[in-house]
Amino acid sequence: MRRDLELISTLIPEGSRVLDLGCGDGTLLAMLRDRGCSGTGVDVNPDDVIAALRAGVDVIELDLDSQLGEFADDSYDFVVLSRTLQTVHRPRAVLAEMGRIAVHSVVSMPNFAHWRNRLRLLRGRMPMSRDLPFDWYDTPNLHHASLPDLEPLFASVRMKIDRRIPLDAEGRPHRLGNVAANLAASSSLYVLHAER
């Protein structure tokens, strides 16, 4: 199990209605169900959709870039987008839709500016790590951002950062916290709320 998913599950209050975008095999929603939450997963990968259904998770196969209009305004308490923002074609539009669907969101994304990624670039190679595990020619990642690049994007869609949790390569909160997070954090997790 990904440790960051365990952390996300602790950030969502019991009994919440949760929409998990890019839910994969439904692991997070299954954990949240055990904590009294209800939820729906969305994924475009048919194998992941089948795995989530087998885990007893309600899941819908939709394209995040074009089909989030299927969800009504304020139909959920939380929307989760874990390690998926960098794979969508229109990140800004997806974030705006999240803010429409729920006041609260949890977003996590790899930090392209992590010191190991920078070192690999200095050696003339494209970064690869636990958070960026794909060869450049085979990656689902369309967008790479540093933390200072990512955070103004939230503001542009009227989402306020309630909490930023820099993560280490294992998906745990980084021991340095927010100190030099753009250099030290392998990825970062954000708790956001949409301005209304």
TrEMBL record:
Residue spans crossing the bilayer: none
Q: What InterPro entries does this protein's entry cite?
A: Methionine_synth_MetW, SAM-dependent_MTases_sf
The protein's name is Methionine biosynthesis protein MetW
Q: What organism is this sequence from?
A: Tessaracoccus flavus
